Amino acid sequence: MKAQAQAAAWIAGQVSSDAIVACYPAMCAALQAHGVIPGRLLPLGRGPAGPPSANVLAISSSTVSPLADEYAPGMIASFGAGRNRIEVRAVAAGGAAAYESALRADLAARKSAGPQLLRNSHIRFTAPEAGQLRAGEVDSRLLATLAALSSVYSFRVTAFGDASPGAQMLFREVTITTGSTGDEAAELAGARALVTAQAPPFLPAHATIIHLTSGQAALSVEFAAPSPLGLLTAVLAVDTQA
Amino acid sequence: MRLFRHMARLATIATLLGGTATFIAATSPPASASTTVPAAAQDGWVRIAHLSPEAPAMDIYLYPFGNPGHPVVLRDVSYGDVSAYMAVSPGQYTVAMRGFGAPATSHPALITNFMVGAQTTYTVAALGPDPGLRVEILQNQLAAHAGKALIRVVQASLKQNRVTVSYGPTVLARQLVFGSATPYVAVSPGEQTIQLSAPGEHTTVSVTLTADTVHTIVVLDGPSGLKADDLTDAVGSKKMPVGGANTGFGGTAPHPPASPAPWLLIIAAGALLTAAGFAGLRRPRRTAPLLR
Lengths: 242, 292
Hints:
Helix content of chain B: 10-25%
Order of helices and strands of chain A: HEHEEHEEHEHHEEHEE
Number of helices of chain A: 7
Largest sheet of chain B: 5 strands, mixed
Radius of gyration of chain B: 19 Å
Largest sheet of chain A: 5 strands, mixed
Strand order of the largest sheet of chain A: 2-1-3-5-4
Oligomer: heterodimer
Order of helices and strands of chain B: HHHEEEEEEEEEEEEEEEEHE
CATH architecture of the largest domain in chain B: Sandwich
Distance between the termini of chain B: 25 Å
Largest interface: A-B, 37 and 41 residues
CATH topology of the largest domain in chain B: Immunoglobulin-like
Number of strands of chain A: 10
Distance between the termini of chain A: 50 Å
CATH class of the largest domain in chain B: Mainly Beta
Number of domains of chain A: 2
Structural class of chain A: alpha/beta
Radius of gyration of chain A: 19 Å
């Protein structure tokens, strides 16, 4: 029950607010209790089923099936252990093989794009964040957002963040501080306005002015789960069937 | 508003007449000037097409991830406009747009991202409704089969979700859905009829494709039904676009050794457009309209 409540809270807070969540009845109830509207919930029936028309799947250990492995291969968070374990997975419309292929392509694109940001004179990174960029561990929406922000502002990336328990997922959150000696508050407010004015998929779930332990003001930008694939290489696919 | 826009265009032209370098620096600089390798050997090439009839004029920016201070900028891009190819350094780019005339320091709308490969050409195409505008990146082919023309179709009609397109007897696309493209196919050059078919609609238009050319047929909504625009992706050899000789509406490649001739053509074209604007004439489309 604890894992279920944790999973419900995490989905309510971290999964994209327009994502449809497929869930077993008890989990659906828990999600509703955490404020997820019924219209976003797709109750799973008993027994084997085809791929749900959902973006995210929340399943317990007892409901995991090979079929689920096929249509929702990507685990984005997990809670609890043993029989109480709850897994949250991203549904892959094209199946596991296509998902794995897209995953590899996206990793390659992130590994290519991330280091290019390190050459960006408007952004400063610390060594750990630079390493994470090189390793392709940063969500492509964050990479694009940092690039767009740097067209107007100079800033320092103080941390990439992640809130995906039980799964090694991409960093979907970044904290930045102003890189100038000018009006820090105004610049951060401007940066926040820039990111919150975007449209999906580049609209973050949260963009908040926070204060670091040092007292310095910072902007925290966080995108919802799951991380989309293919955003860095948006070349129009050719329809060979037409 | 239109007068204002033509005044702005005239101001740009005045700048051009005062010094081409200013225009290059302000409008379409190379994404990175630091390369030591000859530009033609390394660069990719990008052009921008505004194919969304409902969307207003806009300024489009391509920001290189590593060098945001030197974006590729195309200002006052209106429906039907197709830029020349612009040489850009390979790398990751963010495509952003601002309203026409908005300062570069204003907040951009982030549209999409793409990776420019060396010696690869792309069309950045704005499609769809407004609001709901989307930008698609098309990778272009530059070389046709000898003696043939290459042709592909992009479906950008908002009113017909599925369109079948034929070039003479050759079916280029069956039930092509909005926002998708076909592969290039080789066709015999010459004068031919392009047919656009959708439920309750059948339109034909004549085109003349010359040998060794590459084309993208864009299906759009006209005032009285479907229409098609023919974008010339390449003409002639396998060489990368240089200047305005072989590509689309003419080149703006800013790197040497591009000939200054294209700039003169652009100045002339801009001057004509401005004159047309002052004369109260409707601004001519920059693409090759196949159907009105």
